[in-house]
Design the sequence.
């Protein structure tokens, strides 16, 4: 019976150690009265230590390995524990045996004697260095994206497959006369108008939007020139839109350019009309002039 119990305990310990290794974690048990620390075997690869140096330590030595900027805060947390508030959770940086810094997330609990003095502090520490590095890289990536996002001279809009606006920059919001918050509550088809019209039914706009979606998904890059968007002041705005798949697009206000083009076209039309009138006048006067002696000669 004793052998079976011992085998079961050994198996349970083996499983726990494997689970701790998989979770990049280790357990610890610190006796503040003797300053002795006992850690699980799984701490060795995390702390970069081996043998007795990994599983046996002192609180004094461990505190010295904590990053100077985190040390006082960590010690203060331990000193602030009371029988009524015996649990704690914190993060801190600690130096490995090879000198590299890692980030540990520690969750622990203190046990107190009859006089209210801590006699044991135990818990679990997890290496979250990779997580924090990933979060830092994500923040840097988001900062670069936001800088590019806001520095664009063109409007930028990002939509879902159903046309719901999820993001846009200040240029786009100013272009349409809406606030960024207002635009995020709208569907892109509600801002679009057919060329030469001032109204459009939601059903036809939705069909047109989904037709565009099917067109854009067939090609990696697609351009749709000069659709019309409606600003909040009720005016049609002529834009040039370049879409990358159906997810996002850059939008450039070409209203002034279109106005100039229309004025130039009107001038050209007027010039052609005058040339045509003058040509007709010359043709009409030609037979009368041909009755002269010079014409007969």
Sequence:
């Amino acid at each position: 019976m004793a052998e079976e119990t011992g085998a079961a305990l050994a198996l349970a310990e083996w499983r726990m150690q494997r689970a701790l290794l998989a979770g990049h974690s280790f357990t610890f048990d610190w006796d503040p009265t003797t300053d002795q620390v006992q850690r699980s075997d799984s701490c060795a690869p995390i702390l970069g230590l081996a043998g007795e140096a990994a599983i046996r330590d002192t609180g004094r030595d461990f505190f010295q390995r904590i990053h100077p900027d985190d040390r006082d805060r960590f010690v203060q947390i331990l000193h602030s524990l009371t029988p009524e508030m015996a649990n704690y959770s914190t993060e801190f940086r600690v130096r490995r045996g090879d000198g590299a810094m890692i980030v540990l997330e520690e969750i622990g609990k203190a046990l107190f004697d009859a006089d209210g003095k801590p006699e044991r502090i135990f818990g679990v520490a997890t290496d979250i260095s990779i997580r924090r590095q990933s979060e830092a890289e994500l923040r840097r990536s988001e900062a670069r994206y936001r800088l590019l996002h806001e520095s664009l001279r063109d409007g930028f809009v990002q939509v879902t497959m159903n046309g719901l606006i999820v993001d846009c920059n200040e240029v786009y919001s100013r272009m349409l006369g809406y606030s960024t918050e207002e635009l995020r509550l709208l569907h892109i088809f509600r801002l679009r108008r057919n060329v030469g019209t001032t109204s459009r039914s939601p059903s036809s706009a939705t069909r047109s939007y989904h037709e565009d979606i099917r067109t854009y998904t067939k090609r990696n890059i697609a351009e749709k020139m000069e659709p019309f968007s409606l600003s909040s002041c009720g005016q049609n705005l002529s834009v040039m839109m370049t879409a990358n798949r159906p997810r996002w697009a850059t939008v450039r206000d070409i209203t002034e350019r279109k106005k100039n083009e229309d004025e130039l076209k009107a001038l050209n039309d007027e010039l052609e009309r005058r040339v045509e009138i003058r040509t007709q006048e010359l043709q009409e006067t030609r037979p009368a002039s041909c009755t002269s002696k010079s014409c007969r000669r």
